[in-house]
Design a protein that fits this description.
Elements lengths: L1 E5 L3 H12 L3 E5 L3 H8 L10 H10 L3 E4 L2 H7 L2 E4 L15 H11 L6 E5 L7 H12 L5 E5 L9 H6 L4 E4 L3 H10 L10 E4 L1 H32 L3 H9 L20 H14 L5 H24 L8 E5 L15 H10 L3 E5 L4 H7 L5 E2 L3 H5 L4 E4 L4 H4 L3 H7 L4 E4 L6 H6 L3 E3 L5
Parallel strand pairs: 1-2, 1-4, 2-3, 4-5, 5-6, 7-8, 9-10, 9-12, 10-11, 12-13, 13-14
């Protein structure tokens, strides 16, 4: 079976590489010639553990190909996956579907024989019907079905999520389309992965509903953390006590500076806008969107308070810039709210991240300084702040901070360390939801 994947961003590149690992012949297509050249040279456009090896192995096996020429790949494909970006549309919060519809129109001109066109991008309810309409209007002779197959890939663990998923969701309504998608995921039957067949609309909504629920869970534990600080409770024990209830579970009950990344911020906002368009009340999600923005900004206030009420002229070492560990993605990272606020308050910011430094230089205030290691970042700093919990930061001991810094204040926004250990060593230590 031959597959074409339109878009070599995070979803398209990971999905294409993983499908080729299943044994299918996959061609990944992108308009960006420089990106295609880089991938063919073994340079990945994103950092994802294991991706470079996975791509190299399947390119060498002749199963994975990269091109800017859509026509031959689509003409030969049994299934074409649309995996282009759906960013938040400027001005109104809706998902921008222009790339999806543009891809659909171009795909339509190259279809030959029966083909399933699959939306892999995260798209609002009703997008699949519009994709079908675009293709039919562009090529009335085309023999095709449209299906929805949302991705549930966590950055930093995407390959494992694709190869060993909790479930596969497919929105497909014809027997031919369902049979083809089942065949594509047949390798997962050996590990008894549930494959849920639904309508197009249901599949599209499952993705948004899932991400919104997880965002609610994150915001809930963050609010509990604030309450813990006021009543003298420990949020980690609260989370553990909650998580032991099988109805709740322990995932996404980790307090921090707020969620970010490529999915939760835009998907929650898009879901709110979809609900508004259909006069449906999802006030819980609406409040989570607003609360998360407030949450990220409030983290700068915590740092100022820890500094005694002013950071004017103080050197602040920021450890971690990406929105989470094991990725270089800075989209909606809390760092993008915290650092500008501290800079505006007069602080001198020095940042370090194992993978996202190049991206940070384009997104953070021009005055931000950068270090090439955690210890270089801490050198002579008045205050240290942990925004992203990379494993290498967990290895830092109290003496690393005390020996390198001129000050002794550590604001740990990810609760990497135990408060008693840090304070006993002489650090002025503050964390989230713990006294």
């Amino acid at each position: 079976m031959k597959l074409a994947v339109i878009g070599t961003g995070y979803v398209g590149l990971v999905s294409g590489a993983c499908f080729s690992e299943f044994g299918f012949d996959v061609t990944c297509i992108d308009k960006d010639a420089a990106k295609i050249d880089s991938i063919q040279s073994g340079i990945m456009p994103i950092y994802e553990p294991g991706l470079d090896d996975l791509v190299a192995r399947n390119v060498a096996a002749g199963r994975l190909h990269f091109t800017t020429d859509m026509a031959p790949a689509v003409a030969a494909a049994d299934a074409v996956f649309i995996a282009v970006g759906t960013p938040t549309r400027r001005g109104d919060g809706h998902a921008d579907l222009s790339y999806v519809f543009g891809a659909a129109a171009e795909i339509a001109t190259h279809l030959q024989g029966y083909t399933v066109v699959v939306t892999k991008s995260t798209v609002p309810v009703g997008t699949g019907r519009e994709v079908e309409k675009v293709i039919r209007e562009t090529n009335q002779q085309a023999d095709f079905d449209v299906a929805s197959n949302p991705e549930f890939l966590r950055e930093g663990a995407a390959i494992g999520d694709f190869m060993r998923p909790d479930r596969v969701v497919v929105g497909a309504e014809s027997d031919r389309a369902q049979d083809m998608l089942r065949a594509l995921y047949r390798p997962l039957y050996l590990i008894e992965t549930p494959v849920l067949m639904t309508s197009l609309e249901t599949s599209e909504l499952i993705k948004y509903a899932s991400n919104a629920f997880l965002a609610v869970k994150i915001s809930y534990i963050n609010q509990m953390a604030d309450l813990c600080e006021r009543v003298g409770a420990d949020v980690h024990d609260v989370a553990k006590g909650m998580g032991l209830d099988k109805r709740i579970g322990n995932k996404f009950l980790h307090p921090g500076p707020g969620y970010g990344g490529s999915c939760f911020p835009k998907d929650t906002l898009a879901l709110v806008r979809t609900a508004e368009d259909h006069a449906a009340d999802i006030g819980i999600v609406n409040e989570v969107v607003a609360y998360n923005e407030r949450r990220k900004l409030s983290m700068a206030d915590r740092v100022v308070a820890a500094a005694g009420g002013s950071v004017e002229g103080k050197v602040i070492a920021v450890l971690g810039l990406a929105f989470k560990p094991e990725t270089d993605d800075m989209r909606d990272s809390p760092a993008l709210d915290i650092i500008p606020a501290l800079t505006a308050a007069g602080a001198v910011i020095r940042g370090y991240d194992p993978k996202s430094m190049n991206e940070a230089r384009h997104l953070l205030p021009a005055a931000t300084e950068y270090a090439d290691s955690a210890m270089a970042c801490l050198k002579d700093a008045d205050i240290a702040v942990i925004i992203t919990e990379w494993n290498e930061f967990r290895a830092l001991t109290p003496s690393h901070y005390l020996d390198a810094m001129s000050g002794s204040t550590l604001v740990d926004l990810r609760n990497v360390y135990h408060p008693d250990d840090m304070r006993a060593a002489g650090l002025t230590y503050q964390s989230i939801g713990r006294s």
